[in-house]
Design a protein that fits this description.
254 residues, alpha/beta, Rossmann fold, 7-stranded parallel sheet, 7 strands, globular
Length: 254
């Protein structure tokens, strides 16, 4: 029996990178997976991969920067399966390492809506259903950038994710509902592919790099998925409000 046998899990940002790796792993571990992202064609490709491997999944297009889409995603999951056992708040926008003097209000708002507000909205609506049964696991995908070694918008949003993780955990500590976060270090995904990296503020990225150990190995999307799985499974049933750094020790340097 898999670690998530019989559970229903929503994974946001599930059509690429860490989200895709998580959706595929969850399905292998017995979960029914709701694959969500803005691009329905990409969502459906992941669902097809899961089905080909013998798993069960549906695709629901949603822009989690929009609260109404978050509500619709939760409602679609309940309509299809009647429950939500696991929520993985993975959707996020790539960091461009923009320092405060190079960051526009528009970029700050965009990053905050996607990387921070989405965690609030998805968690709020999913918790309504988790509360009814007194059980559930929320896993937020944060970043070592929460410590300041990233663009100001991204660092601020991910620091807020860490704080919200602990805040939700405190609220539900007396119940069977848990909330934890995984904080990836540098992880090869489409969000930080060379073409994306070309948009970074190289000077500030170099300044941030002085505060972490960039000589260490990078974790893979599958490494991050394994950490997310542990928080989602009953193996971590006594753990809540924790931030797990998955970075080969990269952030220990700072």
């Amino acid at each position: 029996m898999g670690q998530l046998e019989g559970k229903v899990a929503i994974v946001t940002g599930a059509n690429s990178g860490i989200g895709r790796a998580t959706a595929l792993l969850f399905a292998r571990e017995g979960a029914t997976v709701v694959v969500s992202g803005r691009r329905q064609d990409a969502n459906e490709r992941v669902v097809a991969e899961i089905a080909e491997a013998g798993g069960t999944a549906i695709a629901v297009a949603a822009d989690v920067a929009v609260a109404e889409d978050c509500r619709r995603l939760v409602d679609a999951t309940i309509a299809a399966y009647g429950r939500i056992d696991v929520l993985v708040n993975n959707a996020g926008i790539a960091d461009r390492h923009l320092p405060i003097d190079a960051c526009s209000e528009e970029w700050f708002d965009q990053v905050t809506r996607i990387d921070q507000y989405s965690v609030f909205s998805m968690s709020k609506y999913a918790l309504e259903h988790m509360e009814r049964v007194g059980a559930g696991a929320i896993v937020n995908v944060s970043s070592i950038g929460a410590g300041g070694v990233a663009g100001i918008a991204y660092s601020g949003a991910k620091a807020a994710v860490n704080a919200m993780t602990k805040n939700i955990a405190i609220r539900y500590a007396a119940t069977g509902i848990r909330c934890n976060a995984v904080a990836p270090g540098p992880t090869p995904t489409p969000l930080n592919a060379p073409e994306a990296a070309a948009t970074f503020h190289s000077e500030f990225a170099d300044m941030c790099a002085r505060h972490i150990d960039t000589t260490l190995p990078t974790a893979s999307a599958e490494d991050q998925a394994q950490a997310i799985l542990w928080f989602a499974s009953d193996a971590s049933r006594a753990v809540t409000g924790q931030i797990l750094y998955v970075d080969h020790g990269t952030s220990l340097y700072g």
